[in-house]
Amino acid sequence: MVKYMKISELQRKDVININDGKIVGRIIDAVINENDGSLEALVLDKSKYIKSLFSADGEVKINFSQIRKIGTDVILIDI
């Protein structure tokens, strides 16, 4: 049986950096490969912590390869 998840379900999860345990932000969009339909990246609305570290820009792109685990409540990423 194939399991799937809607983007709206992903948007309800906190995205946590596994290196420091801090909330990175919430998913606001997804980047889909036009050729094969695969998920390439998630676009996050950055938390205050990430904004102060990286830039004043309000979004950050997380490549699919940086996602370590999608749980019932959180998404763990390695950045």
For the largest beta-sheet, the strand count, sense and barrel status come to:
6 strands, mixed
Distance between the termini: 32 Å
Question: What is the CATH H-level superfamily?
Answer: PRC-barrel domain
Indicate the CATH class: Mainly Beta
From the spread of the alpha carbons, the general shape counts as globular
Gross CATH architecture: Roll
The overall average pLDDT, rounded, is 83
Radius of gyration: 13 Å
Assign a percent range to the helix content: 10-25%
Uncertain segments are none
Task: Write the H/E string, N to C.
Answer: HEEEHEEE
Number of domains: 1
Number of helices: 2
Can you count the beta strands? Answer: 6
Query: Structural class, please?
Result: mainly beta
CATH topology: SH3 type barrels
Percent strand equals 35-45%
If you had to describe this structure to a student in words, what would you say it looks like?
14% of the residues lie in helices and 44% in strands. The protein has a single domain (7-77), classed as PRC-barrel domain (SH3 type barrels). The longest helix is centred in the middle third of the chain and has 7 residues, at 48-54. It is mainly β and 79 residues long. A 6-stranded mixed sheet has the order 4-3-2-1-6-5. The model has no long low-confidence stretch (mean pLDDT 83). A hairpin with a 3-residue loop joins strand 5 and strand 6. It contains 2 helices and 6 strands; from the N terminus they run H-E-E-E-H-E-E-E. The relative contact order is 0.26.
